[in-house]
């Protein structure tokens, strides 16, 4: 078993995102290419975005810090700390309304 603090890891990556020219920092905390389940902690500086992209499988986003806006062509969802958003099975994008940290969980379709 492995244990980690997502709060501490989020603080670390948010500090990195603030210094990065891209305004983002991320780390896979579980899974990877050899697993179906992948969990990635992502930090985005306020005003930064993840541009529109397809969903690689079933996915959720849990907001740990800040506020985000998840957008598809037909709807928008606001996310605040503690919110769990189900990512639509359609092209979507994400905007960081405030400095934000979230946990992206994806189950890849085989």
Automatic annotation (TrEMBL):
Database matches in PANTHER family: SLR8022 PROTEIN
Protein name: LuxR family transcriptional regulator
Taxon lineage: Bacteria, Bacillati, Actinomycetota, Actinomycetes, Micrococcales
Organism: Subtercola vilae
Coiled coil feature spans: none
InterPro entries attached to this UniProt entry: RmlC-like_jellyroll (IPR014710), RmlC_Cupin_sf (IPR011051)
Domain of life: Bacteria
């Amino acid at each position: 078993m492995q244990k980690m603090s997502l709060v501490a890891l989020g603080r670390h990556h948010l500090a990195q995102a603030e210094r990065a020219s891209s305004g983002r920092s991320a780390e896979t905390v579980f899974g990877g290419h050899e697993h179906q389940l992948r969990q990635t902690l992502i930090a985005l500086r306020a005003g930064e975005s993840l541009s529109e992209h397809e969903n690689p499988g079933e996915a959720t986003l849990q907001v740990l810090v800040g506020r985000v806006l998840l957008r598809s062509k037909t709807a928008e969802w606001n996310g605040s700390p503690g919110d769990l958003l189900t990512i639509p099975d359609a092209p979507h994008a994400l905007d960081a309304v405030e400095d934000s940290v979230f946990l992206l969980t994806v189950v890849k379709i085989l």
